[in-house]
Amino acid sequence: MKRNLLASTLLVALAAQAQAGNTASSPRANYLLHCSGCHGQEGLGTVEGGIPGFPDSIEHIVGTETGRTYVMHVPGVVANNMTDAQIADVMNYILDRWSGGGAHFTAEEVTRRRAIPVGDVVAYRREVVEELRRSGIEIATYPWP
Ligand code: HEC
User: Fold this and answer.
1) Cα(84)–Cα(108) distance, rounded to whole angstroms?
2) pLDDT-derived band of residue 143, with 50, 70 and 90 as boundaries?
3) What is the pLDDT of residue 22?
4) Fewer Cβ close by (within 10 Å): the C or N end of the chain?
5) How much distance in Å is there from the Cα of 136 to the middle of ligand 1?
6) 68-121 per-position pLDDT tens digit
7) CA separation for the pair 101, 56 (Å, rounded)
8) Residue 121 CA, closest ligand 1 atom number
9) Are 60 and 35 in contact (CB under 8 A)?
10) Distance between CA atoms of 99 and 16, rounded to whole angstroms?
11) CA 135 to ligand 1 centroid distance, Å
């Protein structure tokens, strides 16, 4: 029930976001406009939204094949009207701020990975978690209240 409520809240937020259109251009402006509402200006995520934080976590996620495909299928990337080049830029902005700047995406990689079907993104994230755990790495958990 809690998850259903969350899902509808996310849909409303994403619809509002889509309607707002895409006028900002710099990666930082795009982050503030399209991502910070859920992820926060400091990338810490939110307990209410059940959104995992970026610090000490996103760098590990983008270090694996599965993880790089996963981040191209999260809600905020699937449902916005940015081009693949703008998505690459905003993702690289996140990496620069919260992962020491490694493992940048190109627009071509974004296009290629967005075309890979992943099905249920929550289940897919679990695969990323398990893969990293096998190498002894723990990433951010969902901060459910
Ligand atoms: C409506 C809320 C919302 C917005 C807006 C949003 N996200 Fe997210 N994001 C989420 C949720 C929820 C998850 C967790 C996905 C899951 O269930 O695996 C997530 C996960 C992520 C992750 C993976 C983090 C992790 O530890 O799993 C990345 C990277 C990400 N989002 C990037 C973005 C970017 C880039 C934008 C802006 C273009 C954005 N998000 C906008 C809700 C949002």
Assistant:
1) 8
2) confident
3) 45
4) N
5) 24
6) 999 999 999 998 899 999 999 999 999 999 997 779 999 999 999 999 999 999
7) 12
8) 18
9) no
10) 29
11) 24
